[in-house]
Structure to design on (169 residues):
């Protein structure tokens, strides 16, 4: 089931950028899209149609506190976007950060095509969008560009935070 709460009947290659009112969406789906656009910077550069396409490619997953999302060393087939809750990121069993709503994780291994460099565990009951590598395919170039732009902005923010931490130590 997609993150929009529908079956996988739509084609992942069909990039839809139509206005929201012309998309075949329920009121609940329209409300979700509007809320995501308003509350999560990740979606700020996407049109309503692009968000709908993105959500059709994703899966929403719930994790209980302490449940593993992925482990260091595993291969990467997707990355994740925190919708609610908090995720602890650990390297060799040492917690290095916690990420809350609107933050992405697992993107580095996917982009670099290397095994996971850290583990991710739900620090509390957590919901994430699991974003498959197909979102960044050539079949949906505009959507892929906007997803990668959002990921790059967050990676830049993480690097800036790491630099500030190193300089203050």
């Amino acid at each position: 089931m997609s993150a929009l709460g529908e079956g996988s009947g739509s084609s992942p290659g069909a990039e839809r950028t139509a206005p929201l009112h012309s998309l075949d969406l329920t009121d609940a789906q329209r409300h979700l899209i509007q809320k995501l656009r308003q509350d999560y910077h990740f979606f700020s550069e996407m049109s309503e149609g692009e968000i709908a396409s993105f959500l059709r490619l994703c899966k929403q997953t719930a994790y209980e506190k302490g449940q593993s999302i992925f482990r260091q060393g595993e291969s990467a087939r997707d990355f994740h976007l925190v919708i609610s809750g908090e995720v602890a990121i650990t390297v060799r069993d040492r917690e290095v950060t916690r990420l809350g709503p609107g933050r992405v994780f697992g993107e580095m291994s996917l982009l670099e095509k290397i095994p996971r460099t850290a583990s991710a565990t739900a620090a509390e009951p957590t919901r994430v969008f699991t974003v498959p590598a197909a979102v960044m395919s050539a079949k949906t170039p505009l959507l892929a560009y906007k997803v990668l732009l959002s990921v790059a902005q967050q990676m830049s923010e993480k690097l800036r935070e790491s630099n500030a931490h190193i300089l203050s130590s």
User: Anything to note?
Assistant: Helices lie at 27-39, 48-57, 107-112, 141-168. The two ends are 46 Å apart (CA to CA). The first strand starts at residue 59 and ends at 63. The chain has one domain: 20-168.
